[in-house]
Amino acid sequence: MPVVDPDLDIYDSVAVTKAQYQWFKEQDIRFAEFHVLRDKLRWCYRRSGTNHFHECREYRQQFLAVLKEHREHGFAKPFKIPYENYKKNPDGSFDYTEFNERARQNKQNHH
Fold first, then answer.
1. Number of domains in the chain
2. In which broad location class does this protein mainly occur, judging by the first location in its UniProt entry (predicted)?
3. CB-neighbour burial class of residue 56 (10 A; exposed 0-12, middle 13-18, buried 19+)
């Protein structure tokens, strides 16, 4: 299950974009793994005929393990920025002064 780094610097837009890219890449890998196992199981079932219970046991166990993981943790989860790293004002709203300052610094560093 992909996890967002809790120490992600949310004020660095480049780091956030890279984390999002990595997140979606891991999601795509999980989907591909699921589809490959499903196709292997399907192929084994068709090839084996009546002996599929014995011959396809390995694929079936792998497929059910992946399916169980997806059902427990969700098949696809959205990318969530760790908002607990934001500073808040006393009224509960987010304090964007540090965000603006760090964005300006990052812009200067990347150009």
1. 1
2. mitochondrion
3. buried
- Bridge partner list, 88: 94
Cβ atoms of 64 and 39 within 8 Å: the answer is no
- Decide: 11 and 102 in contact? Cβ < 8 Å: yes
C-alpha atoms less than 13 angstroms from C-alpha of 77 in its C-beta half-sphere: 15
Is this model's pTM higher than 0.85 or not? no
Residue 4 falls inside a structural domain: no
- Structural domain contains residue 2: no
- Which residue, 28, 63, 59, is CA-closest to 45? 59
Contacts with 46 (C-beta within 8 Å, 6 or more apart), sequence order: none
- Provide the CA 12 distance to its chain's centre, in angstroms: 20
Would 60 be classed as within a structural domain? yes
The count of other CB atoms within 10 Å of the CB of residue 59 is 19
Q: Is residue 6 part of a domain?
A: no
Work out the widest C-alpha separation in the chain, in whole angstroms: 69
Q: Which domain holds residue 70?
A: 13-110
